[in-house]
Amino acid sequence: MEIRKLDKMESPPNELLLLADPSIEMIEDYLNRGETYICEEGGERIAVCVMLATRPGTFEIVNIAVDECRQGMGIGKKLIEHSIQTARLQGFKTLEIGTGNSSIGQLALYQKCGFRITGVDRDYFVRHYKEDIFESGIQCKDMIRLSMDL
Ligand code: ACO
Ligand code: ACO
């Protein structure tokens, strides 16, 4: 398994990106402004992570997704560890990530990787997404914000 930057001429792996974010408009916006990393195995793109500089000294993981057949095998954790190293090497002081209130497994993973909850952006998903989102039988309304000092 290899983690590399998305090539400038390469098409982005939309089918993976859409697993983490149902809005293609939002995805296209941050793909243009951020850095995209691909996890590849045997020539196949199996996971993706997009990072964006949001404020001075702050980097954010805005999209992370692993191919459905390969979830729960430690790949997401490896990509987050790679993101932490990338942010440190580029001199960022803080790494942020946000996820929905209904993303129980993601919240577990991010805290296991060292992120701590810093706040809640109430009704973020109601304001920014046209369709209602449901996960684990819970409506996704609020964005849980987490961060890590690097
Ligand atoms: N309770 C406790 N721990 C849990 C739970 C739970 N309910 N669910 C998952 N976990 C833990 C696992 O135990 C594991 O930790 P461990 O290594 O200590 O056992 C960890 O979370 C999962 O780790 P990985 O196997 O590395 O995760 P995976 O490779 O599946 O990647 C990801 C995680 C990216 C969330 C993947 O499942 C995915 O693509 N999901 C769909 C898209 C998505 O939701 N992306 C994130 C949206 S938010 C954003 O993009 C900023
Ligand atoms: N992901 C998604 N859903 C989950 C998860 C999870 N990881 N864990 C539990 N749930 C859901 C279940 O699916 C179920 O929902 P459903 O009815 O839609 O299927 C629900 O949570 C659990 O419901 P119950 O079976 O009614 O819960 P239980 O009778 O176990 O009571 C309680 C819950 C009080 C937390 C009990 O487990 C307990 O006593 N735990 C130990 C003490 C404790 O932690 N108390 C709370 C501390 S905070 C406080 O006291 C204010």
TrEMBL record:
This is Acetyltransferase (GNAT) family protein. It comes from Cytobacillus oceanisediminis. PANTHER family: GNAT FAMILY N-ACETYLTRANSFERASE, LD18367P. Transmembrane segments: none annotated. The keyword DNA-binding does not apply. Keywords: Transferase. GO terms for molecular function: N-acetyltransferase activity. It comes from the Bacteria.
